[in-house]
Q: What sequence folds into this?
């Protein structure tokens, strides 16, 4: 990547309608990542649960993989992680891999792991979703209890250095906890990702408000790919995958319930200029 490209890279949010089996989801993700690369993107973010939206919440336990970077994975199959490493290398993309089920020390619960791969196919970060979606959705019959099958990650913000700037990691329900995003911006995040599977009910009420608010509050570009449409469990997700700039303006948005790649230009100088001229991050008095 040239110096000019590193200041204005193309970034992609990948929307998916993930199915109840891993193989077809990986094939879809491969096509979408290839399309993002063909269109010039150098960073692509997949949605939460991109590899599986099962008919039952326990379906993820059957496809959970050991962490491919650990000795426990030496003799184990890790097809999802192998796919991600290969795709990143083949397409020359940095990939933020939504979430995938990574085995935990508990047989009936896994981690919702957001893994980051560089354009050489090396895994450079792993963030385990901190906030689990244990809710009854108001004014509907919907209820979710992610803690039944997920182990929460440690409450530690994760920001990594990339060719595109400092990148902060979050997932879906995390969007409702602004203190996490404050911690990410305090740690230097210029770009924050929020791969999601927002329900249609909560998304239609809050998706745009939350994503834009987190970008505005932190003067950070937010990349928020979402699941969309109906899934094997009967769940309906909201779509409207977004890229929001550091002033809170929507740069790109998915326009259908289909699998879709949305692309925008990341203006790193704009982020710096805003933070210098409108320094609200340094004006905070309550901690």
A:
């Amino acid at each position: 990547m040239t110096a000019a490209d590193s200041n204005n890279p193309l970034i992609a949010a990948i929307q998916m309608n993930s199915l109840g089996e891993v193989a077809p989801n990986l094939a879809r993700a491969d096509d979408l990542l290839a399309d993002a690369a063909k269109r010039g993107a150098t960073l692509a973010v997949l949605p939460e649960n991109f590899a599986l939206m099962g008919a039952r919440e326990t379906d993820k336990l059957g496809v959970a993989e050991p962490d491919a970077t650990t000795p426990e994975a030496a003799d184990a199959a890790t097809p999802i992680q192998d796919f991600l490493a290969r795709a990143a290398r083949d397409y020359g993309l940095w990939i933020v891999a939504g979430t995938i089920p990574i085995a935990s020390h508990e047989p009936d619960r896994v981690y919702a792991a957001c893994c980051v791969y560089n354009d050489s196919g090396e895994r450079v970060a792993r963030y385990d979703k901190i906030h689990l979606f244990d809710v009854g959705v108001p004014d509907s019959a919907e209820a979710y209890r992610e803690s039944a099958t997920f182990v929460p990650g440690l409450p530690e913000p994760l920001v990594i250095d990339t060719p595109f700037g400092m990148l902060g990691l979050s997932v879906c329900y995390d969007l409702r906890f602004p203190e996490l995003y404050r911690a990410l911006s305090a740690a230097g995040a210029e770009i924050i990702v929020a791969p999601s599977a927002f329900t249609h009910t909560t998304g239609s009420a809050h998706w745009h408000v939350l994503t834009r608010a987190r970008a505005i509050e932190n003067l950070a570009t937010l990349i928020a790919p979402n699941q969309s449409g109906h899934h094997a469990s009967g769940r309906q997700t909201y779509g409207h995958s977004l890229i929001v700039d550091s002033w809170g303006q929507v740069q790109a948005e998915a326009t259908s319930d289909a699998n879709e790649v949305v692309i925008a230009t990341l203006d790193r100088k704009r982020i710096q200029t805003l933070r210098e001229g409108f320094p609200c991050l340094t004006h905070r008095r309550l901690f």
Summary: The longest strand covers residues 110-117.
